[in-house]
Amino acid sequence: MTILLVDDEQELVSAMAERLDMRGIHAEFACCGTDAIRMAQKKCYDVAVLDMKMPRMSGLELRRELSALCPDMRFIFLSGHGSEEDFKAGSAEAASYLIKPVDIEDLMETIRTVMEQ
Amino acid sequence: MSFLKRFKPDFWDTNPEAGPHKSLFNYRRTWRQAIALLTVVALVPLLIMTFLDYNVTRRSLESENILRLTRVTSNTRRSVAYFLDERKSALQFIVQRETVKNLHDTTRLGNILRGLKNSFGGFVDIGLIEGSGRQVAYVGPYELQGRDYGDQHWFSRTLEKGSYISNVFRGYRDEPHLIVAVRCPGNGPDGPFVLRATLDTARFNSLLASLDLDPGDDVFITSHSGTIQTPTRWHGTVLSDLGLPVPEYSAKTTVLEAGEKDGTDVLVGYAFITDTPFVLMIVKVTAEVMQPWETIRMELLWLLLVSIVVILLVIVGVATRMVSKIFIADQTRAKTLHHMEHTNRMASIGRLAAGVAHEINNPLAIINEKAGLIKDIFTFGKEYDKDDRLVRNVDSILKSVNRCGTITKRLLSFARHIDVAMEQIEFKELASEVIGFLNKEAEYRSISIIMDIPDDLPEFTSDRGKLQQIFLNLINNAFQAMNDGGALTITALRSGPNELQFSVGDDGCGIPEEDCKRIFEPFFSTKKKRGGTGLGLSITYGLVQELGGDMAVASEVGKGTVFTITLPVTPTINKAEQA
After folding, report:
1. How close A114 comes to chain B (CA, Å)?
2. On chain A, which terminus has fewer CB atoms closer than 10 Å, C or N?
3. Domains in chain B: how many in total?
4. What is the pairing mode between strands A2-6 and B194-199?
5. The domain that contains B252 carries what CATH number?
């Protein structure tokens, strides 16, 4: 199982990827939508965990790009923002919607649930 | 005072300058201006019309009185003139028909007198006077045979004019009488003879006595010089001077206003009787002839007074109603504005909360991940397993991150639910959320919060955002009313098949009974001096109603207050309201 973590906060996604790795889940990360697309062009990931609010390309736009590249890819949205629009869009367009900060165990549980769907 | 209070309009005690939502109008001033304007518009035409009508009616009545007096005076003059003319003509007829010789005969003269008395009446005696003025024949009750009238004014006037009617005078008989004399045709040795007759003044007087007079009126005949000729009621005896002025001769009847000696205003009708020295006078007291006018005037004044009172009552009623309507509209406007302002403020708070939460959540997530990574390194690596202090400290960091996360998630939840419509609510969870916002204040002020919410309380359908606002307002109010160390009680129970009852109670200062009645009214506040708008409970009440519920308050001064909210488990409110 390979996971793609995308967030403009590199410190966050790098630590998160390392922790997932420690738990036996191979995770790679990108700090912007462009990098993420480039990575997805090389290989398709099982699950992408996307930050909703990112500069230049939002999580929702990135999700559409990635879906076009990898139709089987599942998505989890991660947001520090709890606006109504985010909540609705995140719930509608992704398998799951989580609000930062996320407990690593909760994230793994969500990933497992999403994979089982 | 309490009776007046019942009629006091709602706007009376409002202060247009007070409060954050000032009224558009100064209602009392508007009310006063409306009354003044309506009063001027309604009463000025009425008063002008009444004044005009008053004067027109008065003038009309005065004219009518003058006309009536003129008519009566003219008619009476005709009667008097006819009486005198008739007798003068009778004597003229006799001198034409009878010779002087016949008239010298006292028997013949006595027959003539008898005939005159029978035919006309009013004759007392009759005599023939020769040209020198000596009475040569006389028939009558007095001893006047041989009397000399040569120097008498009437005698010379008769010779000069052919006939003469005298004033009332005393003469040789020394009692008031008047004579009619005519000149006989032809000449005697000393000039023309004169036939003279004395008229009965009683008959003369009875002509005037037959008039229908009011108690203060008078009718009499006076000479041109103002000597009274017939008996009067109030103006003196026969041959005394009249107190009233006699106008210049006029063939027409005239009516003048005059004043009696005692100051009484009178109307006097004058009529000069042609070819006689007499002036007929009818005197009427102005107050008596204007008596009907006094009655009309009183009726008019009463009508005016009643009309003014009715108009003023109507004006006050209309003005009060009109200003009350404006007041209600203004209140509604202010309430709506405040509601909008409140909604906007809540939306702004929501956006701000979401923004703050986002800004905090990102660094918090980094702290969380980094601390988690450190812990993972400690946990998964074997180097540090002997020293659990490091893991304990990292756990402490993670716990604080978790605490911050809970706060930001609560803020986000609050922000998310501001505009959210109906959803299933678990009251215990909602109460905990709301209490979460005020936990710190409760801690600082040592306020204990007691929640008595049964576990089997069913979930109900409602608007989470509105419920949060309702309970936040109520709990905030309770906190303000309580002293430090007080107790706040939140209870919930199922009060009916489709009804839940919630209460928020405090042991604070309580609310006086008078204030309890008005507590949900907009702009009613006991905290205005401390910046209260008087809209918090009004808006809370409105929100409860929007949710299809009801709200009540029970309070005792010094013991505390309990607000009770009843909400349906499944509301039947208008779908449009949810939109």
Report:
1. 21
2. C
3. 2
4. unpaired
5. 3.30.450.20
The two structure tokens encoding residue B442: 């409760």
Q: What is the pLDDT of residue B573?
A: 47
Q: Which residue has the higher pLDDT, B433 or A28?
A: A28
Cβ pair A81:B413 closer than 8 A: no
Mean pLDDT of chain B, nearest integer:
84
Partner-chain contact B362 A12, CB within 8 Å:
yes
pLDDT tens-place string over residues B356-397: 777 888 888 999 999 999 888 888 877 776 677 888 888 888
Fold of A2-116: Rossmann fold (3.40.50)
Flag whether residue A82 sits within 8 Å of chain B, measured between CB atoms: yes
Confidence of residue B420 (pLDDT cuts 50, 70, 90): very low
> Which CATH number covers residue B493?
3.30.565.10
DSSP string for residues in B61-126: HHHHHHHHHHHHHHHHHHHHHHHHHHHHHHHHHHHHHS-HHHHH-HHHHHHHHHHHHHHT--EEEE
Residues A16, A5 contacting (CB under 8 angstroms):
yes
Domain containing B246 equals 205-291
Residues of A in contact with B419 (CB under 8 A): 84
Inter-chain residue contact B357 with A81, CB threshold 8 Å: yes
* Mutation to test the B interface, candidates A10, A99, A102, most B Cβ within 10 Å: A99
Q: Which pTM was predicted?
A: 0.51
Q: What value does the mean pLDDT of chain A take?
A: 87
State the complex-level ipTM. 0.87
Q: Do B365 and A19 touch (CB under 8 A)?
A: no
- Listed in sequence order, the residues at least 6 apart from B323 whose beta carbon sits closer than 8 Å to its beta carbon are B9, B11, B25, B27, B30, B31, B34
* End-to-end alpha carbon distance in chain A: 14
Return the bridge partners of B449, or none: B488
Please judge whether B370 and A80 are an interchain contact, meaning their C-beta atoms are less than 8 angstroms apart: no
Q: Please say which residue of B257, B291, B325 terminates a domain.
A: B291
Q: Which of B291, B313, B329 is the last residue of a domain?
A: B291
Cβ distance A19 to B362 less than 8 Å, yes or no, reads no
**Cα B528 from chain centroid (whole Å):** 38
Side-chain-side CA neighbours of B264 within 13 Å: the count stands at 18
**Residue B17 covered by a domain:** no
The predicted pLDDT at position B313 comes to 93
Number of CB pairs, chain A paired with chain B, less than 8 A apart:
85
- Does residue B433 sit within a domain? yes
Please report the pLDDT score of residue B44 as a whole number. 93
pLDDT tens-place string over residues B146-159 = 889 988 888 999 99
Q: How confident is the model at residue B243 (pLDDT cuts 50, 70, 90)?
A: confident
* Nearest by CB: A100 against B351, B361, B376: B361
Contact A12 B354 (CB under 8 A): no
> What are the boundaries of each domain within chain A?
2-116
Q: What is the mean pLDDT of residues B400-426?
A: 72
> Is residue B250 domain-resident?
yes
Query: Per the CB < 8 Å rule, is B357 touching A80?
Result: yes
Mutation test of the interface with chain A: which of B346, B349, B351, B361, choosing the one with the most A Cβ atoms within 10 A? B361
